[in-house]
Write a structure and sequence with these properties.
mainly alpha; 17 helices; globular
């Protein structure tokens, strides 16, 4: 299950195959390349989150000069990290931990371990991810627990994901805690809720994560996928705000989302259920 949790765009690709059942055609490839290159340009302008998005989106062979762009993005992140951009350091350390092409546990540890020792609990959480990737689960859980206990939503999220499907009560508890601490982390809680068949609350969780993200739209896509479940669609009005965001940012199926945004009224009616 770790690919589900650590390779964000892999989830996006599964979503694509399962819910759209169609391959990239020439027009979709053009749109995908446009979005990819937009993030590459933003990365050149020292936007660390845009650099991260390049690695989330990358699919080998889809983009011209993709290897060159990715290498330049790594160099940009390295420069930003050297300039004490902590977010860039976290992103770079995580890429070295989980990215197949750039995986280097020694480099990941060199970045994340000192940050963790200095008190950055998000770094401790990601450093735990290094140990999990290495198969050292005990140390990974220790670091996830430490980070979560000391206020890192990322730590709680990774701890909840660690328990996913092995201990769903623990997974629910920690991902819910992460979601309450930082709405960006509601994605993991949405996965747990969806697995438990709680589709309405899962939809709300994905929505929360979607609207709090600057670039990453996997939560938005999962919200759309979850909305298609009959029980959600029958009880909640179509999410126009969601479609507007996907219309602007989706790397494919753009026209579909734009049509939905145009044809959906602005009002929303929610059931009186407990949101995550």
């Amino acid at each position: 299950m770790k690919n589900l949790f650590y390779a964000t765009f892999a989830v996006l690709l599964v979503f694509t195959a399962a819910s759209r059942a169609e391959e990239f055609d020439a027009k979709q490839k053009e749109l995908f390349a446009k979005q990819f290159n937009k993030y590459a340009n933003l990365c050149q302008q020292k936007d660390a989150l845009a650099c991260e998005q390049i690695f989330s989106m990358h699919k080998e062979g889809e983009i011209e000069n993709d290897e060159k762009i990715m290498q330049e993005s790594m160099e940009n992140l390295d420069k930003l990290c050297a300039e004490k951009n902590l977010n860039a350091c976290l992103i770079l350390g995580n890429i070295y931990s989980i990215n197949k092409k750039y995986k280097d546990f020694e480099k990941a540890a060199k970045i994340l371990s000192p940050m963790c020792e200095s008190g950055n609990q998000d770094a401790c959480a990601l450093y735990g991810g290094v140990f999990r990737e290495k198969g050292e689960s005990k140390r990974a859980v220790e670091l996830f627990n430490q980070a979560c206990d000391k206020g890192s939503a990322r730590g709680c999220d990774l701890l909840g994901r660690y328990y996913y499907r092995e201990d769903m009560e623990q997974a629910y508890f920690y991902t819910k805690q992460a979601c309450a601490m930082n709405e960006k982390m509601c994605y993991g809680h949405g996965l747990v809720l969806r697995e438990a068949g709680e589709y309405i609350d899962a939809f709300y969780a994905f929505e929360k994560s979607c609207y709090s993200q600057k670039y990453n739209i996997i939560s938005c896509l999962m919200a759309d996928l979850t909305y298609q479940h009959s029980i959600v669609a029958s009880l909640i009005e179509a999410p126009r705000k969601l479609y507007i965001k996907l219309c602007k940012q989706a790397p494919y199926m753009k026209n579909d989302f734009c049509k939905k945004a145009k044809n959906t009224p602005p009002s929303r009616t929610f059931l009186p259920v407990t949101k995550p």
